[in-house]
From TrEMBL:
GO biological process assignments: intracellular zinc ion homeostasis
SUPFAM superfamilies hit by this protein: Cation efflux protein cytoplasmic domain-like (SSF160240), Cation efflux protein transmembrane domain-like (SSF161111)
Keyword Cell membrane assigned: yes
Name of this protein: Protein p34
Membrane topology: Multi-pass membrane protein
Domain of life: Bacteria
Record-annotated Cation efflux protein cytoplasmic domain positions: 207-284
NCBIfam families: CDF
Keywords from the UniProt entry: Cell membrane, Membrane, Transmembrane, Transmembrane helix, Transport
A GO CC term attached to the entry: plasma membrane
Length: 295
């Protein structure tokens, strides 16, 4: 099984365990803030399932209907995750409103806080693994899941601090007020996830640093050519598409021009795994004198 799928499957298992722990913390305390934290964990389970399916689809090879592959499926996973986060936030705000009108007494606070803290530690460790492995494997779905879990950890820390304050001051209204803050925090996290995913669906260009490095590689490995211009990039999941025009002397043979293109492609792919390069060769009269100068 592909390592991306293995990580996605493990995410489902971790999300279920964390959900069980957080629901147990809510069950023993009756805290609406802990309820909101547990409700977000339900979203974590759902998004982990969707991420697994999206990664499985993205790994399918190109076919007649999808000649550029299926890698963009991971972006749909992240958009769906963002939408679910928004739904969870609205449900938490509703619960917080009614709990504020009728404050509840928090029971067994020490046990509930300890259980919730254990779940948060597990979440933090797994989020770190997902982000690190997601970057290495160039999986947008895994990275989005990891960032969402980090937001969940931050939420849980806020909940723990707030509940300690509510218990210490004896003000039960702090509990639902804290739940409302949790909702606003995960709304922001959901927006961030959706914004980044929409950028990928809209064929957003590679980062400025990546483009600068690609220009350097073209310049250094295009010996025999005159210049390169009209460089374009776009992301589709873990794949980066790159195309540009390469101007060569008119006296160069097709075979010699092809050798230059092969040299550039090898250099780019060696540094950016999964990069698909398309080069349009042009004669010297097409030079724009404003692109990438060949060293």
């Amino acid at each position: 099984m592909d390592p991306r799928q293995k990580l996605a499957l493990a995410s489902i298992a971790v999300a279920i365990v964390v959900l069980g722990l957080k629901y147990a913390a809510y069950h023993v305390t009756g805290s609406v803030a802990l309820y909101s934290d547990a409700l977000e964990s339900i979203i974590n389970v759902a998004t982990a399932l969707v991420a697994f399916y999206a990664i499985r689809v993205s790994l399918q090879p190109a076919d007649a209907d999808h000649p550029y592959g299926h890698t963009k499926a991971e972006y749909f996973s992240a958009v769906f995750e963002g939408a679910l986060i928004v739904v969870a936030a609205l449900l938490i705000l509703r619960e917080a409103y009614f709990a504020y009108l009728a404050p509840r007494q928090i029971e067994a606070p020490a046990l509930g806080l300890a259980i919730n803290a254990g779940a948060s530690i597990l979440n933090a460790g797994w989020a770190w693994i997902l982000i690190r492995k997601g970057r290495a494997l160039r999986s947008h779905a895994l990275q989005a899941d990891g960032r969402h879990l980090l937001a969940d950890v931050a939420t849980s820390i806020g909940v723990l601090i707030g509940l300690v304050a509510a218990i210490a001051t004896g003000i039960p209204q702090l509990d639902p007020a804290l739940a409302a803050l949790v909702a606003l925090n995960i709304l922001w996290a959901g927006w961030q996830v959706m914004r980044e995913s929409v950028g990928g669906l809209m064929d957003q260009a590679a980062s400025p640093d990546t483009i600068a490095r690609i220009r350097e590689l073209i310049s250094a490995h295009a010996e025999g050519a005159i210049e390169a211009h009209d460089l374009r990039t776009r992301h589709a999941g873990r794949v980066t598409f790159l195309d540009f025009h390469l101007v060569v002397p008119g006296t160069l043979s097709v075979s010699e021009a092809h050798d230059i293109c092969d040299r550039i492609e090898r250099a780019v792919r060696a540094e950016f795994e999964g990069c698909l390069v398309t080069i349009h060769v042009e004669p010297e009269n097409k030079a724009k004198h404003s692109g990438i100068v060949v060293l």
